[in-house]
Amino acid sequence: MMIQNLNKIERQRRIKEYILRDPFLSDKKLAELFNFSVQTIRLDRLEMGIPEMRKRIIKVAKETSLADQVKSLKRDEIIGELIDIELGKSGIAILKTVKSMAFNRTGIIRSHYIFSLADSLAISIIDAKVALTGIARLRYKIPVYTGQTLVAKARVAQKKGNKYLVSVHVKSNHEEVFTGKLVIFSFNDKVKKKEV
Amino acid sequence: MMIQNLNKIERQRRIKEYILRDPFLSDKKLAELFNFSVQTIRLDRLEMGIPEMRKRIIKVAKETSLADQVKSLKRDEIIGELIDIELGKSGIAILKTVKSMAFNRTGIIRSHYIFSLADSLAISIIDAKVALTGIARLRYKIPVYTGQTLVAKARVAQKKGNKYLVSVHVKSNHEEVFTGKLVIFSFNDKVKKKEV
DNA sequence: CTAACAATTAATAGTTACTAATAATAGGTA
DNA sequence: TACCTATTATTAGTAACTATTAATTGTTAG
What we know:
Two copies of one chain form a homodimer. The first copy, chain A, is α+β, with helices and mostly antiparallel strands. Chain A folds into two domains: 2-65, Winged helix-like DNA-binding domain superfamily/Winged helix DNA-binding domain (Arc Repressor Mutant, subunit A), CATH 1.10.10.10; 75-187, Thiol Ester Dehydrase, Chain A, CATH 3.10.129.10. Helix content of chain A is 36%, strand content 30%. In chain A, strand 5 (163-172) and strand 6 (175-187) form a beta hairpin. In chain A, helix 2 packs across helix 3 (38-48). Chain A starts with a helix and ends in a 9-residue tail after the last strand. Residues 65-77 and 190-196 of chain A have low confidence and may be disordered. Chains A and B meet through helix 1, helix 4, helix 6 and strand 3 of A and helix 4, helix 5, strand 1, helix 6 and strand 3 of B. Strand 3 (130-140) of chain A pairs antiparallel with strand 3 (130-140) of chain B, so a sheet runs across the interface. Chain B binds a DNA duplex through helix 1, helix 3 and helix 4.
């Protein structure tokens, strides 16, 4: 019974994972995968409160069918729009958040979009051919929801040789939602022309 | 016959429109909407080559499903591919870097792509409905160039209530290029059952 | 007027992927 | 031995179909 029980729990854990990764798996397919009967799989699903395949598919479909309209964002749009910049000193960028940047369930913007905004702004204010992020400390203070417009302000706080300390503050409606401190290294690989 | 014919064509045009706008309409619902028999609706669908509701839903779902084999570039370019996961414990994801993720001048992958890989992996191993990044400490150790494949390993290092400390290590060719420590908070908006 | 034809509806059998309930079986444990 | 858990089997019923054949209705050309 002990061994059986453990097996059962382990099996259910794996079934859950499989379904999470591939909601299109029917009970029959799962039964074949795990070499258990269809009935056992069903019992497992019931015990875990996982709905049948067709309902799972409908859920997945609904989550996105409404969303789409707005297609894939161009990568550069992740960066936001540079609205002001003083090379070597500071810069401001804004990003209008859209549905595709958010978790479907909650409408909360995924953290890496905010980091992308901060990071690209920080890099773009460095007055060098090449700038690379070395270390970053990020703090997400308040969740940001789809539709909110983010304003990022970056400032070079310190400079030692080719090492810059840049602080970035992101606000939405005058409320700070994110702060970050980035250590960025600059390199002047070859000839340095005027500017960008 | 002329009038009938026109009606038929008109009806089919409208059915097509309805289905386009709402792929979840079954033949029965369409029959009710148009006040024709289910059989007529079916014939119309067949004549127009429109698949049945369930297939339409599957199509919609697959277009955006994370688990989908045929991955939509946009999303996967950012998130990478989950290749193993043990909910609540650890996970592995890989990301094949491409040109569009890099700076043109140097071919070095922009840091936020690496963070995105790490961050999404960290979030996906949290066994909760909603997980949000709160704090992050990142260290970029070696530049990554276009074409390199990144392997990210995340592990829950600590858990206190709904606060998780997740460490992520990203390697390329067995060389560590990035490490990060993320503090993630989980939320169960709709509590169902307790587990584990 | 009627045979022909299109459009529509009905009827029937078979499919998939289930739910829900009940029963049977194997392998332990107390 | 009686009980218990896990597993498997069986049966009836559901939605939403496919595929086929047949019946009905309406129009119209000869």
